[in-house]
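Please decode residue identities from the backbone states below.
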């Protein structure tokens, strides 16, 4: 201290200077909890249920109409998007549910799985009923599994049987997958593969027996 008298000493352990406490900020409510609370609200679930029920009915009717009007509506909906719906004259579509019905059925039937796309109608309807009434007339999880495997088989089978006469029945998925598999294993090989696929599916679902008990 004689030499460095003007210099302050280091504090001892018990004299350690504690950092100043930062002023508390007003923390807003957790937005994630609010979001989850909104999704679990009964009114939201019922509203979503009504939406899915009417979506399934809309898709069902528009898809039925699609098979008689798709050739006339093809040029109209081929390159359409959500942003173009407001710019196109809706009365130009021949689909019974108008331009939106023509476009929606085009996405599911033509660009999708053909007649196998009707599985989406069932799935949307069951989901809507579950959200609206908390009931499951048919188990949704089982329906999803069966629709997935059955839809692939049906789409490919429609392409296998009607690839020249009515390719629309298979949709883009079935048609192009059929062409690829035909080149890979041949027409007869694809027939065997579809038969084997069906038998495996039936065994997995119904456990069918090939021998007398």
């Amino acid at each position: 201290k004689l030499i460095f008298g003007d210099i302050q000493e280091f504090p001892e352990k018990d004299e350690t200077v504690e950092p100043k406490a930062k002023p508390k900020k007003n923390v807003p409510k957790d937005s994630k909890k609010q979001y989850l609370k909104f999704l679990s609200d009964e009114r939201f679930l019922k509203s979503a249920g009504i939406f899915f029920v009417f979506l399934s009915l809309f898709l069902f009717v528009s898809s039925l109409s699609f098979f008689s009007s798709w050739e006339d509506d093809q040029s109209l909906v081929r390159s359409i998007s959500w942003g173009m719906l407001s710019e196109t004259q809706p009365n130009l579509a021949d689909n019974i549910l108008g331009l939106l019905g023509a476009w929606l059925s085009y996405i599911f039937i033509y660009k999708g799985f053909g007649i196998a796309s009707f599985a989406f109608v069932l799935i949307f309807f069951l989901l809507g009923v579950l959200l609206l009434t908390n009931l499951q007339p048919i188990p949704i999880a089982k329906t999803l599994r069966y629709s997935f495997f059955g839809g692939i088989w049906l789409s490919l089978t429609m392409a296998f049987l009607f690839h020249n006469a009515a390719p629309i029945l298979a949709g883009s998925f079935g048609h192009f997958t059929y062409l690829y598999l035909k080149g890979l294993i041949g027409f007869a090989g694809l027939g065997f593969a579809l038969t084997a696929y069906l038998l495996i599916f039936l065994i997995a679902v119904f456990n069918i027996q090939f021998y007398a008990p």
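Observation: Helices lie at 31-39, 42-77, 98-113, 118-133, 140-162, 171-206.
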